[in-house]
Write a structure and sequence with these properties.
The complex is a heterodimer.
Chain A lengths: L4 H9 L4 E7 L4 E3 L3 H5 L20 E2 L2 E8 L7 E4 L5 E13 L5 E14 L4 E10 L6 E2 L5 E2 L4 E6 L6 H15 L3
Antiparallel strand pairs in A: 1-2, 1-4, 3-6, 4-5, 6-7, 7-8, 8-11, 9-10
Chain B lengths: L3 E7 L7 E2 L26 E3 L3 E9 L5 E8 L8 E8 L17 E2 L5 E2 L10 E14 L11 E8 L1
Antiparallel strand pairs in B: 1-2, 1-4, 3-9, 4-9, 5-8, 5-10, 6-7, 6-9
Classes of the chains: A alpha+beta, B mainly beta.
């Protein structure tokens, strides 16, 4: 899917690698930054969850037929989901805003899309999410002063406990530090 | 709009928040990135830094909301003999000196995320969650010299 110039400009001004698109159950299509999207992003209801819901903190929308994260830059792939009967849309960005003890701070965003459904006999919820992790803009430095750059990865897992590829990258930096003999 | 989150810091007696991009753990109540007032490796016992008083400020509101605020470090351990302790509080107090252990920052912060206290789903601008206090502790097992930089990461979800 090709974005309009206006959408591309808004996405880049906001530092986004992807913008979302949804098709509601009534067939209406809405893009992030559409006027409707800014007032009520999905014209669909944000699912209210119980306090003891295992996925209490993720954002889930009802009344959606399909959705996708559309890449802003060439070389990235569109990530699409078609929702079956009884499935709701899981859609959010997971942001990382860091404060460095060195010379710079950093920002990183994982784009998450998936389906929430209920498994009989108890109809317990499951949220199956694709984590789209673009290449990072800035490298991370280890204690030896070496820098490593996250090169990006897309992967499916069960939220909220799934460790996405970017978080695994951060942890691999830690392992590296141990291997360096601290 | 896409929400804009900022790390902010106050060193004053009455809270006065300014947006920051770096932290410097030292024996002084400032974040100036220099070699003054260093933490000195003790022959025995523990050397403590001044506390750091931090908060998350939302300067541009999200379209829908932001949720799920967490905090973690980019690596663990920070270095041999060097660790950072954290704590959340509703009440602001000027960061305490490094003469003794912090009464607020009492739990070690590692590369495992912890939930930011008081940060329920938020739709508007302003402070999000309680104040975060951090303090560095250095023991005699630390190596001399400067510790390579690391990142303190706030993680949150948004649409």
């Amino acid at each position: 899917m090709v974005l309009t110039e206006k959408q591309l400009i808004k996405a880049r001004l906001n530092g986004l690698h992807y913008i979302w698109r949804v098709e509601l159950s009534n067939g209406k299509e809405i893009f992030q930054f559409d006027p409707q999207g800014n007032e009520c992003p999905l014209e669909a209801k944000l699912l209210q969850k119980d306090r003891d819901d295992p996925y209490v903190s993720s954002m889930v929308f009802t009344g959606v037929k399909n959705a996708s994260w559309i890449p802003v830059n060439q070389g990235f792939e569109e990530v699409y989901i078609d929702l079956a009967e009884g499935q709701d849309l899981v859609l959010f960005r997971r942001n990382y805003r860091s404060l460095s003890t060195g010379s710079k701070d950093g920002k990183y965003t994982v784009y998450c899309i998936g389906a929430r459904y209920y498994v009989p006999p108890k109809y317990e919820p499951v949220e199956e999410v694709t984590f789209v992790c673009p290449p990072a803009d800035l490298p991370v430095e280890n204690t030896k002063g070496e820098s490593r750059l996250f090169t990006g990865y897309i992967e499916k897992g069960l939220a909220p406990n799934h460790v996405n590829p970017y978080e695994r990258f951060l942890r691999s930096i830690d392992l590296g530090i141990r291997n360096f003999g601290n | 709009m896409v929400a804009t989150l900022q790390w902010q810091n106050s060193t004053a007696a009455s809270a006065s928040w300014s947006t920051i991009t770096t932290l410097r753990y030292k024996n002084a109540n400032n974040n100036t990135d220099d070699a003054n007032d260093p933490l000195v490796r003790p022959a025995s016992g523990t050397e403590y830094s001044f506390e750091k008083a931090l908060r998350i400020n939302i300067s541009v509101a999200p379209t829908t909301n932001v949720t799920n605020l967490r905090v973690l470090h980019s690596r663990n351990p920070i270095a041999t003999g060097v660790s950072i302790y954290y704590g959340f509080t509703d009440t602001y107090a000027q960061p305490a000196s490094g003469a003794s252990v912090s009464s607020t920052a009492t739990t070690e912060l590692t590369n495992s995320e912890v939930t930011w206290t008081g940060a329920s789903a938020k739709t508007d601008t302003g402070q999000w969650g309680q104040f975060l206090y951090l303090q560095a502790r250095v023991t005699s097992s630390a190596s001399g010299g400067e510790v390579a930089s690391w990142e303190t990461i706030a993680r949150y979800d948004e649409i």
